[in-house]
Specification:
By secondary structure, the protein is of the alpha/beta class. The protein has a domain of about 130 residues: Rossmann fold, CATH 3.40.50. About 40% of the residues lie in helices and about 20% in strands. The chain contains eight helices and nine strands. The strands form two sheets. Strands 3-2-4-5-6-7-9 form a seven-stranded mixed β-sheet. Strands 1-8 form a two-stranded antiparallel ribbon.
Length: about 200
């Protein structure tokens, strides 16, 4: 499944005329040691984790927040234990823009304001977490239905057997993040819905 996801992504990149850097980003998802041969659910979560790792390369935080921690903090909260395990393996990945990766599993979502990326796992509503974060400059990534329209920055979803993502530029701007044009070109763009934070 992971190979099909990345092959489709590479075809899309070529059709869109995307640069080599983004093509390399997609290739990394395929080459990632996180992608096991089986079972399929583990592959799905490994691909999601590879996307999360690469979102850090194509996002910019306010200098104060980016520089506050010596390492890239990727935090996980929620009830999706399979994705949590896949994200936890990211701390073995190479540094991102000079910062080693530090993965933290949070018992309380409110602690997410100290993270660069907060992954909210599971299908339950992420609204309480998003409200608790307020306008903290955190790249929120979730897998609940309608996550981005509800005020999250990036929502992961499945389309058939392929991992896709949607991005909410309103949410990114509100918390002071800048998503690269390369992310926005690949994402399904959504705007704040009634549940936007």
């Amino acid at each position: 499944m992971a190979a099909r996801v990345v092959t489709t992504l590479l075809r899309h990149l070529a059709a869109a005329g995307a640069g080599r850097r983004l093509a390399a980003w997609a290739t990394l998802a395929l080459a990632s040691p996180l992608v096991p041969a089986a079972p399929e659910i583990a592959e799905e979560n490994a691909v999601k984790a590879a996307f999360i790792y690469n979102f850090a390369k194509f996002s910019d935080w306010p200098d104060e927040h980016w520089n506050r921690a010596p390492r890239l903090r990727i935090c996980v909260t929620g009830n999706g234990t399979d994705l949590t395990q896949a994200v936890a393996a990211l701390d073995a990945k190479p540094p991102v823009r000079g910062k080693g990766v530090d993965v933290r599993i949070l018992a309380r979502a409110e602690e997410g304001a100290q993270c660069h990326i907060l992954v909210i796992t599971g299908r339950a509503s992420a609204q309480p977490v998003l409200q608790a974060l307020g306008t903290a400059p955190v790249l929120t990534v979730g897998e609940a239905d309608g996550f981005a329209a509800a005020g999250g920055v990036i929502g992961l979803y499945m389309e058939g057997d392929k991992v896709r993502f949607e991005a909410n530029p309103d949410a990114a701007q509100r918390v002071g993040l800048k998503l690269s044009s390369q992310i926005l070109r690949l994402a399904r763009l959504v705007r704040d819905g009634k549940g936007g934070r």
